[in-house]
Amino acid sequence: QVQLQESGPGLVKPSETLSLTCAVSGGSITGYYWAWIRQTPGKGLDYIGYIYYNGDANYNPSFRSRVILSVDTSKNQVSLRLSSVTAADTAVYYCARRRAGFEVAFDIWGQGTMVTVSS
Amino acid sequence: ETVLTQSPGTLSLSPGDRATLSCRASQSISSSYLAWYQHKPGQGPRLLIYGTSTRATGIPDRFSGSGSGTDFTLTITGLEPEDFAVYYCQHYGSSPIITFGQGTRLEIK
């Protein structure tokens, strides 16, 4: 079955750029939207953005000026870059697949990767 | 932006009980665009319900969803030990295109 695995540095310095990758195995990224969602410590889930396999992206306005999502169909992976990070960006970052079909929901999730922003 | 407010914040019940979780939207939303997730520590969230009432693949029938307009409910009948977790509702709409409720923690009494 399709599995997602997030990866990237666990520690990022303030003002630097956070870069994460989500590797998709057991299936193709083609034909689906792929989202990044985060959970800050002790809080709920925040939508960052999602990207279609062809590169069309939607971003949460709260992150729009700092975030770039990309896809690499040859590697079957999607990536997140979040610039000018602060301590408020410390969170567990998840990638998730938007299910096919009219009703929008995320049917497959990675286990998440913890990112700490600290000097 | 549609704000989702979940209640209660914490629900304390025993195995075998019935759990009723509420998700209220700040404006009327399409029932096609309301989903529920279960989230346990160290794991990614698990899709339970989409389109207000359709169970996702592999979800037991003790989980059910209902509602319309601004009021939506996730019901779990006959709680199993593995059901104790945090539950989120999620909406797809206008900017931001995806919003989540703040979550309900279902804990063992």
pLDDT averaged residue by residue of chain A: 95
What's the alpha carbon Rg of chain B, rounded to whole Å? 13 Å
Count of individual beta strands of chain B? 11
Multimeric organization = heterodimer
Q: Biggest protein-protein interface?
A: A-B, 26 and 28 residues
Briefly note the structural class of the backbone of chain A: mainly beta
* Share of helix of chain A, binned: under 10%
**Whole-Å distance between the termini of chain B?**
36 Å
Ends distance of chain A: 39 Å
> What is the overall silhouette of chain B?
globular
Radius of gyration of chain A: 14 Å
Largest sheet of chain A: 7 strands, mixed
Return the string of H and E elements of chain B: EEEEEEEEEEE
State the total count of DSSP E strands of chain A.
Answer: 11
Secondary structure tally, helices of chain B: 0
Q: SSE string of chain A, helix = H, strand = E?
A: EEEEEEEEEEE
Helix content of chain B: under 10%
Helical region count of chain A?
0
How is this structure best described in words?
The complex is a heterodimer of chains A (119) and B (109). Chain A starts with a strand and ends with a strand. The mean pLDDT of chain A is 95. Chain A contains no helices and eleven strands. Chain A is mainly β and 119 residues long. Chain B contains no helices and eleven strands. Chain B is 0% helix and 50% strand. In chain B, strand 4 and strand 5 form a beta hairpin. Chain B has strands spanning 4-7, 10-13, 19-25, 34-39, 46-50, 54-55, 63-68, 71-76, 86-92, 98-100, 104-108. Chain B is mainly β and 109 residues long. In chain B, strands 2, 4, 5, 6, 9, 10 and 11 form a seven-stranded mixed β-sheet that branches. Chain B has a four-stranded antiparallel β-sheet with strand order 1-3-8-7, with no helix packed on it. The interface between A and B is medium-sized, with 26 and 28 residues.
